[in-house]
Amino acid sequence: MKKITIAFSLLFSQFFFAQDGVADTTFGTNGVVVLSDANTTYYPELLQDGKILYQKNNIIKRLMANGQADAAFGASGQITLNQLGTDGYYNLLVQGDKILAFTGDELGWPGGWEFFGGRYNADGTLDTTFGQNGTIEISMDEVEGGIYTTFLNGDLIVSGNTVSNYGSYNNIVARKISMVDGSSMSWSGQGGLSNGFNLSSSSQGYSTYDGAGKSLILPNGDYILQVRAAYYSTTGFDYARSGYVRVRPGVNTPQTTINSFNAYYGGVNADIYADADSNVYSLSGSPTSSSNTSNPTNIIYKRNSEGNLYNAFGNSGALSLSLLANGLKVDFKQLVVQPDGKIIVAGVTTTTQSAYQNENVIMARFLVTGELDTTFGTNGYVSYSVPNPTTSSWGNSVRGLYLSPDASTLYLMASNGENSVILKYTNNSFVVPTAPEFTQVAAICSGETLEALPTTSQNGVTGTWAPALNNTATTTYTFTPASGQNASTTTMTITVNQPSSSWTDVLNCGSYMWNANGTTYTQSGTYTNVTTNAAGCTHTATLALTITAAEAVTGESAQTITVTAGNDATIAAIVVNATDVIWYASEADALAHENPIPTETVITDGNTYYAVNTNDWGCFSSPFAVTVTVEVELSNSDFDASDFSLYPNPTNGLVVIKNTRGISSVAVFNLLGQQLISQKTDATEAMIDLSALNSGTYFVKVTADNQIRTVKVLKK
């Protein structure tokens, strides 16, 4: 059975996947990995293959895609940081098969910090080809407290905010850093961010406190840095707003986007996310704090690649979110956006009386219209409480929200005062389903063996086929993927070619040569010949053959034809026992059935004539040759009447013939000229018996003394 490898085009009517927002039970224990220490999930890094890096102080570990600890990672399952800077542990970056970790040392406030980067091999050792024996010291001058790192076209970009006493401006700094020695490098377009960039000031002229956060590289090459700006009013209340700074290639002045919403008492929600079209979503709003009795307010702004509000989104570019879960308000902290535009946000449930006693972490999905997407999780959200908290002063908090590279999986990191958790949820309803690929089964002939179709596709989709295999008819089979897979149905049509046959009825004279096999048949019968048809199956040809032949001509091959003097003998006078005779003057003409001669043709004494019989199907018998002798008969008047007598006439049977000259032969003929009785004698008297003949008129031919006399006799 031949096979041809093909990939089936998408033919599907439904997708097969778990509902979005359902715990992935293949991960950890029922979709949860518990890390028994608080704050363990600082700076988690999700890898392309679904593995997760996480850091606790100076230790980096890795989870496999199923949530189990990766014992093959680093040395004995971990990388221990071996670099300067032990007062702070910051971002992780992955560079090929290397890991970059960042640390810092406090120089003393307001003196700022100094920062270090170390690059580690897969076995956990420092990559000594990097910087100075594996590390670099990052020059960020008076940057305070922390740094945020990312790659732009392979270059390291480090951002932070400068140190400030109250009454002095705080600036945002972002620099391109040398991967050789940590020094600042030229960065076209960074403009004021290289030396420090002030976001805003209060209308009263009071100073602002500007802070840097997460950074992104957009598909169009823009660098986006999340920022916060806080300032003080004349009454002593502080206000905060969040937004981002955009650095565009070749543009020297950074573009500042500060959302119009004001949060109070110094706190403000802030997160950013970018989609494939370089649109930027920024989360802002006022969280609930222990000193604030107002409800949390969450607003998401969407701006296009030019930095302008996306008017078709929410209310002129601003989308307000509100969720009440189990009677508690939800305060959202982080967001991601699906490729289809739906927004997933993570936050905590809050109470105005005790804001830090957050009972649960929440992850919800909203439509672009701001409505809760009830197809996600349970009624639009999932809720989880980090287990076993005994420290009453700490509640649940969100530590990370990640969308897998193919957007089919969601990861939520959370912690309380004792434990940290990583939660994994399905999220693949919008993802283009995988089209199962199979090897096309080649056509078979009806009745041949048809092997069972594989239940796992070439690209790893499992499922079942229906209907049952049929090796007698062409059938289209549908492959239905097993549940839990983002895969489409597909079909395969297996062609079952049929054997063919033909039937030929032939009636032929004498013999027949069958073109199907080149055989000549001379007898009637049913014959078969088996070959292969165009589809490669058997073809049975049947010949129903009838061989016919005209009845053979029989008679006297030498005949004497007697005519009276003065008359001619014709072909009609030759006597043969066949009914549809055609006469020919030569054997060649008789064999070729050419030049027949009519029955009135005068025959010649001593010549041979050829009789061929025919039948209703146009068949011919073999030629029958008759050589004729023509005798001239004298008339009856030549007999002496006194010497000849014949009686009785009419007769019932016996007839007496007398002739004084002697009788040599007597013959009896019917009206057709057929001789019925012939009798030799040598006497003056002869007797013939006509009793066996039917009633009718007959001719009695009497030969005496070389004279012939024919008498008509009536038989009663």
Structure characterization notes:
The chain is mainly β and 716 residues long. It is built from one helix and 54 strands. The strands form 15 sheets. Strands 16, 17, 18, 19 and 20 form a five-stranded antiparallel sheet that branches. A five-stranded antiparallel sheet has the order 25-26-27-28-29, with no helix packed on it. A five-stranded mixed sheet has the order 45-49-48-46-47. A hairpin with a 6-residue loop joins strand 50 and strand 51. The longest helix is centred in the last third of the chain and has 6 residues. It is rod-shaped. It starts with a strand and ends with a strand. The N terminus is likely disordered. This is T9SS type A sorting domain-containing protein.
Cα distance spanning the termini: 87 Å
Major sheet: size, sense and barrel closure?
A: 5 strands, antiparallel
Strand content: over 45%
Low-confidence stretches: 1-17, 202-206
Number of helices: 1
Radius of gyration: 59 Å
Morphology = rod-shaped
Organism: Flavobacterium silvaticum
Pfam family, one: DUF5122
Protein name: T9SS type A sorting domain-containing protein
Keywords: Signal
Features:
716 residues, mainly beta, five-stranded antiparallel beta sheet, 1 helix, 54 strands, rod-shaped
In short:
The protein is an all-beta fold and 716 residues long.
Topology:
Blueprint: E1 3-5, E2 15-16, E3 32-35, E4 42-46, E5 52-56, E6 59-63, E7 78-80, E8 88-95, E9 98-106, E10 113-120, E11 135-138, E12 143-152, E13 155-162, E14 172-177, E15 184-185, E16 208-217, E17 223-232, E18 238-247, E19 255-258, E20 263-264, E21 271-274, E22 280-286, E23 297-303, E24 318-321, E25 324-325, E26 328-337, E27 343-350, E28 361-366, E29 381-384, E30 397-403, E31 409-415, E32 420-426, E33 439-441, E34 444-445, E35 463-466, E36 475-481, E37 487-488, E38 490-494, E39 496-497, E40 500-509, E41 512-514, E42 519-521, E43 525-532, E44 538-548, E45 558-564, E46 581-584, H1 587-592, E47 596-597, E48 608-613, E49 624-633, E50 644-647, E51 654-669, E52 675-689, E53 696-704, E54 707-715
Parallel strand pairs: 34-39, 40-44, 45-49
Antiparallel strand pairs: 1-33, 2-37, 3-32, 4-5, 5-6, 6-7, 8-9, 9-10, 10-11, 12-13, 13-14, 14-15, 16-17, 17-18, 18-19, 18-20, 21-22, 22-23, 23-24, 25-26, 26-27, 27-28, 28-29, 30-31, 31-32, 35-36, 36-38, 41-42, 43-44, 46-47, 46-48, 48-49, 50-51, 51-52, 51-53, 53-54
